[in-house]
Design brief:
The structure is a single chain. This protein has one domain. Helices cover 76% and strands 0% of the residues. The two termini are 18 Å apart.
């Protein structure tokens, strides 16, 4: 499946969701927050749990975690680590960090990467977590307002189509 077709598929799935715009946008925000955290196997679980607790959309929470995907792990975790070491005032351990990033780029098993991070020591784990937490705290509210506007627009578009009796999606 090519990238444009896949994007269209997810776009139509997203605009087809029927929850309230606030619930959908809040779900995305929780997903993006969890996606910033370097807890790869548990990002979706964290996002969906937060969505359950705060009565947000669980589907959009799971979708929001896709902000961290294999195409941008390197950049996301690089800046997460840099931000964490800067905030904590820690010296960077470039050799270990480079090794972890190389493993991510080469597509190494996630559990091997997690074991390498855990073996690197608590300071590196703390730097990753603090950096991810800060990035999540900054990006989640921004994403909430962007997607709140998006979902309100979709709802208004749906309503206008229903009133006119036309359900054709534009630009098909």
């Amino acid at each position: 499946m090519n990238l444009q077709r896949q994007f269209k598929y997810f776009y139509y799935k997203l605009i087809g969701l029927r929850d309230e715009p606030h619930e959908l946008a809040l779900g995305i925000a929780f997903g993006i927050f969890a996606g910033m955290m370097p807890i790869i196997p548990f990002q979706t679980a964290l996002a969906v749990t937060a969505a359950l607790f705060f009565r947000a959309s669980k589907i959009t929470a799971a979708l929001g975690t896709w902000v961290s995907n294999p195409l941008n792990w390197y950049f996301l975790y690089y800046y997460s680590y840099k931000l964490g070491t800067s905030v904590l005032g820690l010296p960077e351990r470039k050799a270990i960090f480079s090794s972890i990033m190389t493993d991510m780029q080469s597509g190494e098993n996630l559990f091997v990467i997690a074991a390498k991070i855990a073996g690197a020591g608590g300071t590196i784990i703390t730097a990753f977590l603090i950096g991810g937490l800060i990035m999540g705290i900054v990006l989640a509210p921004v994403s909430y307002f962007v997607f709140l506007h998006f979902f309100k627009y979709v709802r208004a578009w749906r309503r206008s189509r229903k009133e006119r009796g036309s359900w054709r999606i534009p630009n098909q």
